[in-house]
Specification:
This protein has one domain: Uracil-DNA Glycosylase, subunit E (3-Layer(aba) Sandwich). The chain has ten helices and six strands, in the order H-H-E-E-H-H-E-H-E-H-H-E-E-H-H-H. Strands 1-3-2-4-6-5 form a six-stranded mixed β-sheet, sandwiched between helices. Strand 5 and strand 6 form a beta hairpin. The longest helix is centred in the N-terminal third of the chain and has 26 residues.
Length: about 220
Amino acid sequence: MREKTAHRQDADATTAGTLDPLREAALACVKCPHLVESRTQVVFGAGNPEAELMFVGEAPGADEDEQGEPFLGKAGQLLTKIIQAMGYTREEIYIGYVLKCRPDLPAGVSGNRKPKSEEMSACLPWLEKQIALIKPRALVALGATAVEGLLGKTEPVDKLRGRWLEFQGIPVMTTYHPADLLSNESLTEKRKVWEDMLLVLEKLEKPISEKQRQFFTKAG
């Protein structure tokens, strides 16, 4: 058992080492001068470099830009709860973005804006290389913009969710962004996201308890 653990640690160190040069290069990226000027830092991604499951969001917000970590704040807390309900910890999966810099805003304007298609296209090679190195068995695209950036599809999430798409041979499940659930906390919407996550667990051949199957149902 000790030998297996040591081997796993060595493998993690080796894979992390392959991600490190990519991280360093991404942190120095200047492809989009307007984003370089406005960003605090590049938010590369975080988690297990050998994760079997990877979540992809659209872009960092203010908290993420300040702290350099993906999915913080209320949306991040909700994503963490979803991950834990699936039987994982955040350290066991990987979380990244299509656009790794926070989209800039006019002076005096607060909030977030949707990344432009040309910004996502410029940044996509970083994500492609991340995915190639991590080699997840499944991807979850969080929200319509993440799907657009990752797959080039512009259909609404409710038309894409619940069925498998594909990115370079890797199965992709589309679901609502956690922020969508914060703005609409109905049991029906929560159940839709959870049904998507159950499909992910089935794809990964993970055991699913009856309690998990009943989450966000009236009976559950």
